[in-house]
Amino acid sequence: MKIGSLLISLLPLSLGSPVFSLPFGEVPFGSELRVLQLSADEFVTVPETEKLFLRRRGTNFFDITSHSGQIAGGKLKDEIPVPDYLYPTELNEIETVSKVNKMINTNSMQANLAEITSFYTRYYKSQSGFEASEWVSSKIIESTEKLPKEIVSVKHFDHKEWAQYSIIVQIKGYENPDNVVVIGSHLDSINLLLPSILPAPGADDNGSGTTTNLEALRLIVEHILSSGKTFRNTVEFHFYSAEEGGLLGSQDVYGEYRAQNKSVMAMLQQDMTGYVRDPSNEHIGVVTDYTTPALTSFMKLAIDNYLDIPYVETTCGYACSDHGSALKNGYPASFVIESDFKKTSKFIHSTLDTMDRLSLSHMAEHVKLVIGTVFELGNWPYFTKI
Ligand code: BES
Ligand code: ZN
């Protein structure tokens, strides 16, 4: 679809708010205009307020305003290709993973989820959204402080346009430190009705993924302390800011990784891990669109062996969560959600996204997958390009 006709088609649906078209890259300083990418080859330039209307209608996008160097002459520069890496087709860490998975503590997860949902909102532009990043950071520091500084680092990744920061926890690999395995989740929330005014507890989206990854990180650190062993490859946990603004935080992070020529060999996103529509058919959703097939096959293997519930394949669409930012920058990425997309929580992005609707034991299944992935891929010695 041509950009102009897309703009016109958006007009009547946007409740009268104006839509402007500008040549790409020419976003005037101080204006509220944003450049959005709606698919591989569709772009619009809209006022900030229009983003909300689009989201309420279910249109997903990357907000690429700060990354619009990616477009030239109205077309995306060549997409960065994702290399093919070899992933395990059989598991090598069954004993250790089974042992660590037995240590998952749903009481500690419940306490974390209660705290993270107690912020009025974690909207990335709000003061409480900033305080939420401070809280996540303090929890991470608490669980990693016993590890030597040569092994673990916790960095705040600041963003230019808003105060809530992303957090990068790095556990340095002892053999191939340049090979990085990333576990991701976004820490912000949003109330799509009035983001700056109404509460957004964001229990499922994405207090659940944040809690999942905090628990996995806590147990991994405990294991390193008791065994004295880290991983062959570098393992990172990322807690992204501003996913709900159009994958803003994760695009900054992966844009920077790309600029620094970093090698991310695998990324697993945890976003919405707690809602079970039908407990008699509890399962996990493996996302097969806009993800890397070989890595997704590994995730299925890990689910079959490390989890107590089965998976179903599902789709989530373009620009669905932060794994999209990894993929866009040429890094293999995977996404596993709480269930078949059709059966995910309908309460997200509202005041109703509260923790009483979630299952801690379901979230524990996601923790098992994260731990399985960290041990298997963290120790995988064959990350050569095929
Ligand atoms: N957690 C959602 C994505 C999601 C929704 C996964 C429903 C599974 C089921 C994520 O936080 C989100 O809201 N994404 C936006 C797009 C984003 C780029 C603004 C969405 O799906 O509307
Ligand atoms: Zn969301």
UniProtKB/TrEMBL annotation:
Alphabetical list of InterPro entries matching this protein: M28_fam (IPR045175), Peptidase_M28 (IPR007484)
Domain of life: Eukaryota
Coiled-coil region: none
Residues in the signal sequence: 1-16
GO molecular function, one term: metal ion binding
Keyword Signal: yes
Claim: Hydrolase is one of the keywords in the record: yes
Protein name (database record): Peptide hydrolase
Source species: Huiozyma naganishii (strain ATCC MYA-139 / BCRC 22969 / CBS 8797 / KCTC 17520 / NBRC 10181 / NCYC 3082 / Yp74L-3) (Yeast)
Lineage: Eukaryota, Fungi, Dikarya, Ascomycota, Saccharomycotina
